[in-house]
Amino acid sequence: MQRDENGEHAGMRFRLFGIPVQVKWSFFLVAVLIGWTPRTPTQFLVVWVAVVFLSVLVHELGHALVARSFELPAAITLYALGGYTTFPADPRRLTPGRRTLIAASGSAVGLVVGGIVWALARAGTIRPDTALGRYTVSVFVFVNVIWGLLNWLPIRPLDGGQIFQGLLDTLFPRWGTRIADVLFPLTALAATFLAIRFGFFFAAFIAGFLLLGEVQRWQARRAPTPPKVAGTLPEGGFLFAPPRGEGSEGEGSDPSDDGDDDGSVGGGPSGRL
Description:
The protein is an alpha/beta fold. It is built from seven helices and six strands, in the order E-E-H-H-E-E-H-H-H-H-H-E-E. It has a six-stranded mixed β-sheet with strand order 1-2-3-4-6-5.
């Protein structure tokens, strides 16, 4: 079976509007695990996985199309923790304002699509006659609207974190990164606490993972030779989102991060999901 550059099974590869898309099998596995319960009928589980796949793909497509409008060639990857979009972190084209627009575009597309379906359902234009049909509509709205809004929380490397970072870099060009390094650990800690407080343990796991990344980021900046930060995700990923690596925008496209050539937007947890 074909494997990618990281030794993982490559999964499916195709192009959408000319944009390369890779979907790893782990994406579907995690989607099944999240949606499955002993009482879940098979057809409902299939609908859940299909909606998650379509919604995350549309989310990342929003990032990719906006990046391409700025002459940044983009590629989309969906894998175990969600999705992310990669493109070159060209400082001539990727200004803080454009980076903010790219980060905001993923959830914006989902909110528009999910909002339209919700409005049509409320107006009675969409009126499913079966339990499966009603479940499809409710899940589609939930994934695109609720997950989309959560992805705008000011937590690095979610889309909201990238939006906030872009605003800081615009308002405080010299101090934006330092301010972010102070605020983002606090937002990740707050998210972890609130998720545990209200019993959202999967969300608490993701938030705790991001908090670990912020702690390691502090350690990396103080080390003479910065070690690889293992708890961070490509920025903009739709959670579930992948670990940070070369070729992803997120932290990599930050001009203050030396040695990274590409960036990634993705949601992602780029997202969660």
